[in-house]
Amino acid sequence: MIEPAPPHAEGVGLPWDVAVDDAVAVLAAARMEYGDTFTVRSGDDTYLFIFSPQGVTNFYGLSEGDASKGVADYLMLRRKLPDEMFVGRRTLPHELFSRDRTLGYLADLDGALEATIDELGSEGDIDLFALGRRIGQRVGLVSWGGPGAATGDRFQRLAAAFEVLDGSDAFVHPDSMAAVDASDKAAERAALEIVVSEITEGIEMLPDADTDGHPTFRSIVNAWSDQPDDWAARGVALDVALVHIASMSNLVAAIGWFLVDLLDHPDLLAEVREGNDGNEGHRGTTERAALESIRLAQRSIISRHVLKPLSLDVGDAVYEVGRGVTIATLLPLTNTEAPGHGEFRPDRWRGRRLADVSDLGSRELVTAFGHGSHTCPAQPFSLAAMVRTAQRLFGAYDIRPGWTERPTPVPAQIGGVARAGGPCEAHYVRRH
Questions:
Q1: Of 334, 356, 384, which residue constitutes the final position of a domain?
Q2: Sign of dihedral through CA atoms 147, 153, 159, 163?
Q3: Strand order from edge to edge, sheet including 326-330
Q4: Does residue 181 fall inside a structural domain?
């Protein structure tokens, strides 16, 4: 399947298949032993890991038709999510982040933040990652969940269902996927039916809603207008579910780390409170800090499933890679290995690019949102959401961290933005 045969990491497994205490550390050790190019067997699959500068550059240059990110993502997420979520979708997440729609989502975010502050009240204790999830659930559901999805009991039911129906578990808790498979995804299927029921109610409410309201939800509903009502309602609900899961799961974790990083850097926090986030034409302090938080919090395995035989030049060899192989690299290693890149330093960014790549063998070795055609389409929204969330929360509250040592990621996680491996509680008091 791969010629010439690269070194094979004997005894190394991925956490979907074998017990792994720390997935990133295991692959880092394999790299130390086998070099920048090696293979790993995972069940019936072969992973070709690449870390050399030229190899990573050429990896990002692979076309979707030859080596698919979409297929690789699907193969990961289907470990957790019911298969029917991926069949026959008429609205896909990447279609929903045009500039005009992003502006609408940011208006929704402002409303979600106000609702969150109302819930928090004047003083209390909160887990910062739970807070990030709450904000993300609400802004997603108000943006594309339809009438009433982001308020009251319906919001509580939908938020609880999406906590169960969280595709990121496939890479955050890969060690739990065997149990999910053994149950035939029973809990996930039950949660999906709750989502279908609640979204169907939103469709029924739509004719009575403000005709200018819920434009994204209306577009999803309209995409199914040629189908019988029951079939259409289910199709709309599954579209909403996939959009919500794909768009929010990493953002909510990124918000959590951003709040942690700001609390760890009081001078930067003071600038955020002052609203020193730049102006048109200049990306400011707060956005650079958000990019840096994401860069350091990455636990992503970036992978491409090979659909057609291809050649991959990694610098010291050219490999002929056959269909069915998954080519991958690992951001927590490449993002932090250059001198000084293990430190939180927002000034390394100019706009949304690194200001200086002279100490990197390739600019593609370091990223927050990806490179080239597979740059995350939600990048503008995600950064704006992080900036507005931090400014609104820290403008409203003095927040004191409850931890004595910095929170650490879930050790088994291999993919996405890190989730905290334990509680991350803080005390907040409304500012006067």
A1: 334
A2: negative
A3: 37-42, 45-50, 326-330, 301-306, 67-68
A4: yes
Domain that holds residue 71: 1-80+299-334
pLDDT tens profile 12-21: 989 988 888 8
| 401 belongs to a structural domain | yes
Which of the four pLDDT bands, split at 50, 70 and 90, describes residue 96? confident
Q: Are residues 6 and 126 in the same domain?
A: no
No. of helices (H) and no. of strands (E), the chain = 15, 15
User: What is the count of structural domains for the chain?
Assistant: 2
Residues 163 and 48 in one domain: no
Q: How many of the other CB atoms lie within 10 Å of CB of 405?
A: 5
Q: Which of 98-102, 111-115, 228-232, 269-273 has the lowest mean pLDDT?
A: 98-102
Residues 62 and 166 in one domain: no
Structure confidence by residue, pLDDT tens digits, 342-360: 999 999 999 889 999 999 9
Inside any domain, residue 339: no
